[in-house]
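Same chain as my last thread, 192 residues:
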Amino acid sequence: QRKTIILITNEKEFLQEIDTRIKSRLNLDELEFKPYNLEQISQILKQRAEYAFQKNVFSESALELIAEKTFELKDLRTGIYLLKESGDQAELKASRKIEEIHVEKAIEKVNKLNVRTDKAKESSLLSLIKINNGKPARDLFKLYSKDVSFKTFMRELNDLAQSSLVELKEINEAEGKKTIVNIKEFKTINEF
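reply #2:
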């Protein structure tokens, strides 16, 4: 009796990380979902707008603006959020039609949310590193307890390293490679 397993991942390297013994037993077929192009995004958002709003409520230019922002961010969920938020903005102004001005307000709100989320993530990770300075990345990951994969966690650590907030040092041990994470020391004005 044959069984089928379907794996869906956002990480292209996932298959390379699977143990070779397991990989050899699986008959893998890879199906890559390509990102939507601008025209596809426009069509999807137009369908959603027709489904969610009264006919002719969205101006064409407002929908185009949402599609462009969605394409720029490469996240269709943001586009759907912008449809809703634009409608809310129009409702606040008692407008019967959703125009570019309402979309621009919605985009401002999305931009603020993204910045706030990034800063909060960065701050909580930095606090964890300060408390556990000099520990291996794997140990920090176990303590981090966010709903992120190890790969995403490492990406966040690399972002902090590129911002010169932490230092990542790879060391070779008998068990394999370890990445040690240290807070970057900054000199005070008196130390110069």
